[in-house]
Structures are given as C-alpha cells and as structure tokens.
Amino acid sequence: MSEIKVLAVTPEIFPLIKTGGLADVTGALPGVLADHGVAVRTLIPGYPKVLEAIVEGQEVYHFPHLFGGAANLIATKIAGLDLLVLDAPHLFRRPGNPYLGPDGKDWPDNPQRFAALACVASEVGRGVLEGYQPDIVHAHDWQAALAPVYLYFNGHRVKSVVTVHNLAFQGQFPASEFAMLGLPVDAFSMHGVEYYGGVGYLKGGLACADAITTVSPTYAEEICTHAFGMGMQGLLRSRHELLHGIVNGIDTKVWNPAIDDALAHCYDIRSLGRRLFNKRAIEKRFNLQEDDGLLYCVVSRLTWQKGLDILVSNLDALVASGARLALLGSGDAELEQQFHDACLRHPGRIGVVTGYDEALSHLLMGGSDAILVPSRFEPCGLTQLYALRYGCVPVVARTGGLADTIVDANQAALAAGAATGVMFQSADGAALNAALERTARLYADRKLWAALQRAGMKTDVSWDASATRYAALYLELVEGQST
C-alpha cells in the first residue's frame, strides 16, 4: 500500500523539550519509521522552548475556544521533525518544567492542558486539516491517552495506538473534571475514562485504543500481573491480544562515542584505551580521587522506582571495596540528601551533581567503567542502552526492559562471549551487594572486562528492529487485520 500516515501525540520530544526517555523515543522514531514507509507527524504542546525554536511556521488551524482560551495549530519542521505545535498560551506558555510549577507540584490545570492536547489530536485525526488525513493516531503516555477516547466516543474510526512508557504515571483526576472534557455521558463508564469513581486518562486510552504497546516484552507481561499492574492489570489482561511489547532503541547518531562532542576524547571499539581520558574528565568534574580503580556512574531520576534507596544503603560497602561513584540526577529530596551525605562521608570517592545535564550524561557513559541501574521496575530503560553503546558495562536489576536488553555475565555467557553486563534480583540489597562484588571480580580481569565492553558495543541498540515491528503493527491496523 502507499505510505502510512501516523499522527504521533506526545508531551515532549527531543531535542526540543525533554524530562526523560519519552522525549528520546518520540524524537528518534519518526526518522527510522520513514525508512519503513511510515510518515510521522508529531503533535506537541507549544511550550516556550518549542515556540522559540520555530524559524518558519504556518498557522494551519485556529481554535477559538479550547479549554479556556484561543489556540492555534502551527505546522513547522525542526531538527528534521515534521511537527504540529499547539500554541495555546493559556495552557502551555509557562517557563520551566512542562508538568510542574515553580513550587515543584503539578500544575493545577494539568487535566485541562493535556485534555486539550488529546482533543486536538482527535480533531486532526478526523480530518480538520486541509490536505492531511492520518491513518493512525499514536498517543504516548497519559498526557496524550485521551486521544483514542475522543476518537472512539465521537465516532471517528481512525485507528489509534497508545504506548505506555511507564504505567506508574496514569493521569488520575477527580470525577468533577469529567464535565470539562466535553465527552458524551457514556464515556464516564468502565469502557471509558471512569476509574474507581474518578477520571483516568491512561485508563481511558487503554480501554479505547485499537492497539496498546509498551516498551519491552518483559514489561508487557509484568503489567498484566498484580505486582506490576498498578491497578490496571485486569484491564490489560482483558485486552492482552492487543498488547505488544516492543523494546525501545536509541538514536545511534546522537549516541556515538566515535564522534561525540560531549566527550573529552572520542573512541571506538578498537580504541577502548582512550576511554581513560574521559574517566579523568569525570574525576575532575565530580571531585573524585584519580585512580584506575572501578568507577561506577548513575544517571537517573532519584526515586523509589529506580531503587536508589537500595543503592544508598550499599554505598559504604561500595567504597570499602575500592570502587567510586559519580551520580547525576535529581528527584526525591530525601534521597538527594542521602547521596550528598554519602559524598561528605566519602570525599573523593563519591561525587554528586544534582539536576540533569545532557552533555554530562554522555561523558559519564564515555568514561565510567560501569553504570548502576537498581530499579524496582523498569519498563524499558534507555541508560543501559546508552551504556552498551559506549562500552560502559551495565549492572542492572532483573526486571522489565533491563532483563530484555542485558545478557548476564554468568559462566555460560562469558564462555560464549555473549555476556554484556551483570544482573541481580530487583529490590534486594543483598543481591545488589553480591552483584557489586561480582562486578569487581570481573573488572580485576582486564582482558575479560574488555570482552564485556566489546560485546556490549556490538549489541544492536538501534531502532531498526523495533521500527520494523511498529511498521508491521500500523499496517495490520490500517488493513483491518487482527492484532
């Protein structure tokens, strides 16, 4: 058939606006899908940073009344991305974080903001733009998940997909918010947005979408269980035949140690010794003592989900083993303080930079020996994929996408030359400590360690295989085949 037109809907996209891995995914997928006969146009909110990046744009639609104010839809191309920017000043022209106010709390009108985004997606899906009719509306996470709900309950049978990047974030609001959505009364039901007496944006999307994807095969199975389902397991089990686990990839042009300007020294699989220059740069940036011992890094949100409270409890043992840690991240205030306290207890052995710094995250991948990802659950995870690409050995919990993308350095895998990292039981401090000890033993054998690094760097972490699966799913939907 001819080219498949997909309208992607997302609250963030790299390189324009990013708070996490979602932006990397939505920024990278359009380019790789183009090689598979899929043309992606992405609808994003008109945050200040997005509007500032527009050099040439055309107003293609005007909404005189959109959830409390007028709005325009601007068509533009930025960084190779075909975009529709929803310029709704009353909803999105705010500085800072796209979801949080200056007080660190959710914007109180987030229900209106992201209902507007989804509603506009459904309008574009039904063909309000002259000369553009998407075949599929693909909504990413709860902020876009009402798009399939609007399509379904307003009788617009454009096919829809919802991708769950993290089921822990669901967009749940009081029942009093339902009236402002402008949906038919019957949408407030178990087959629509009603969720334990309130309004569930993600729940509605999961109930109404023609297909559901999540970001790794293991996570797709996990979220159908009580332990990982976050209250959605019953719904997901009932729609299991529509649920697809498609592991994320990364943009291997952006993440390439051979040409990465963020590194102190570039290198490739044949010149791993040059990573030492980056290690020295990390030591300087994090005020760490210079030595050639094992250097771990953490690049993460500091949250319970990421298991970093478990790591905090093992930091004294980590330092006692002779290892060091460089941590880049922010999040839970108590966790931040605990890491800073550990830094004071172990000067020169633990370094902490609070916040997020894209360039510094590249340097950490390019110079650290190993990355720690002790997550309690991890839908996919991208940091371990970046690490593989850069020869930074992942030490990860056995859960979700971590389990799907890392080959544990057990005896058989080592003998076969297939091992790419170290895996341990999730949410278990003793298991983490054992993994640290095992990692130290592997590092002591530099020939074996180099083999681990090279095996990781040879791993295909690109979007190619996953883009093929997305394209096949789109084709099935468009042709009306069973998914």
Structure report:
By secondary structure, the protein is an alpha/beta fold. Helix content is 38%, strand content 19%. It is built from 20 helices and 18 strands. The protein has helices at 21-34, 48-53, 89-92, 110-125, 146-153, 178-181, 201-208, 217-222, 233-238, 275-285, 308-313, 315-320, 333-345, 358-367, 383-390, 400-405, 411-416, 429-444, 446-458, 464-478; strands at 4-9, 38-45, 57-63, 71-78, 81-87, 136-140, 159-164, 172-173, 194-195, 198-200, 211-214, 243-245, 295-302, 324-331, 350-354, 370-373, 393-397, 422-424. Helix 4 (110-125) crosses helix 5 (146-153). It is globular, with a radius of gyration of 23 Å. The mean pLDDT is 96.
Number of strands: 18
Strand residues, percent = 15-25%
| CATH fourth-tier homologous superfamily of the largest domain | Glycogen Phosphorylase B
Number of helices: 20
How would you sum up the global shape?
globular
Structural class: alpha/beta
CATH class of the largest domain: Alpha Beta
* Rg computed from alpha carbons, rounded to a whole number of angstroms: 23 Å
Gap from first CA to last CA: 18 Å
Mean pLDDT: 96
User: Uncertain runs with pLDDT below 50, 5 residues or more?
Assistant: none
How does the major sheet shape up? 9 strands, mixed
The helical percent reads 25-40%
In CATH terms, what is the architecture of the largest domain? Answer: 3-Layer(aba) Sandwich
Total count of domains: 2
